[in-house]
Amino acid sequence: MKLRTAILGIDIQNDFTLPSGALFVNGADGDVRRMASFLEEYGSRIDYVALTVDSHQPIHIANQSYWRDEEGYPPPLFTIITADEVEAG
To answer: pTM of the full predicted structure?
Structure first.
């Protein structure tokens, strides 16, 4: 059986990797450069590259607009909604 090699890059997107990004992670710009250099040098030996992105669409359970009270209004920001409350409607 041939050994296969995969690379997984998690949340490699401008908001996290560029110093001007909204949620810049210190050192991520250097990580991206190192990853690019690694892929240039060893890319022919890699069978699969998967990159993920972090996204929050308007209709997403973590978004305030996903939730509505009995009058149709969203809850205040940072409201904790428990599983019991969801089950109760």
So the answer is: 0.62
Residues 30 and 63 in one domain: no
Length of the chain: 89
- My answer on whether 28 and 8 are in the same domain is yes
Distance CA 55, CA 47 (A): 26
The CA distance from 17 to 66, in Å, is 28
pLDDT values of the chain reduced to their tens digit, one per residue, 89 residues: 889 999 999 999 999 999 999 999 999 999 999 999 999 999 999 999 999 998 877 777 778 778 888 898 988 888 898 999 888 87
Domain that holds residue 5: 1-55
Question: Hey, how many other C-beta atoms are within 10 angstroms of the C-beta on 28?
Answer: 19
Same domain membership, residue 37 and residue 13 = yes
| Distance from C-alpha of 14 to C-alpha of 26, rounded to nearest angstrom | 13
Indicate if 18 and 43 belong to the same structural domain: yes
